[in-house]
Automatic annotation (TrEMBL):
Domain of life where this protein originates: Bacteria
PANTHER family xrefs: GDP-MANNOSE MANNOSYL HYDROLASE, MUTT_NUDIX FAMILY PROTEIN
Gene Ontology terms, MF aspect: hydrolase activity
Keyword Hydrolase recorded: yes
Name of the protein described by the UniProt record: NUDIX domain-containing protein
Entry keyword Hydrolase: yes
Cofactor(s) required, per the database record: Mg(2+)
Domain Nudix hydrolase: 17-161
SUPFAM superfamilies: Nudix
Keywords in alphabetical order: Hydrolase
InterPro entries on file: NUDIX_hydrolase-like_dom_sf, NUDIX_hydrolase_dom
Length: 165
């Protein structure tokens, strides 16, 4: 691969504009079960797939990273949590449908965090319309690998389960 001069567009940005966003995912475990959420049939990216609660940082509104992950979990599944340390960092790309430029993309850099639940009655009553969630479930750790996870979450889930066993 040819080298890139400092300040010049690299191979990922030369062809189309890329916006950067940050996300956090909460791995909430209680009594040997992990909380998963299933995307609704109208989700534009992963209909019917499973993941863990979390979402992208709202730069203007989230006071700090703990506040951010607490807000996301509360909005998506109605739980209060105690955010723990990050255990995995990864990224994915998605189309930037709000951009004017054709083929514009968003690079999402994400961290996974172990979080302790302060309540256990999860429900979807607080979710935002853009969350596209159909259900949530406390899944036994031994069964999580059998769920149809969103593709970018699979290696993160393997990392989580390898440390939980």
């Amino acid at each position: 691969m040819p080298s890139v001069k400092a300040g010049a567009p690299g191979p990922l940005t030369a062809g189309s504009p890329v916006r950067l966003q940050f996300a956090q995912k909460a791995f909430i475990e209680a009594h040997g079960r992990l909380l998963l959420v299933r995307k609704s049939a109208d989700d534009p990216f992963h209909p019917g797939r499973w993941e863990v609660p979390g979402g992208r940082l709202e730069v203007e509104d989230d006071l700090d990273l703990d506040d951010h992950v607490r807000r996301e979990v509360w909005e998506e599944v109605g739980l209060k949590i105690d955010p723990g340390p990050p255990f995995h960092l990864w990224q994915w790309f998605m189309p930037d449908r709000g951009a004017r430029a054709r083929n514009a993309r968003i690079r999402v850099v994400a961290t996974a965090r172990r979080c302790r639940p302060l309540s256990l009655d999860a429900d979807l009553g607080n979710q935002e319309p853009g969350d596209h969630l159909a259900e949530c479930a406390w899944v036994p750790l031994a069964e999580v690998a059998g769920y149809a996870l969103i593709p970018s979450l699979r290696p993160v889930m393997r990392a989580y389960l390898s440390r939980s066993g």
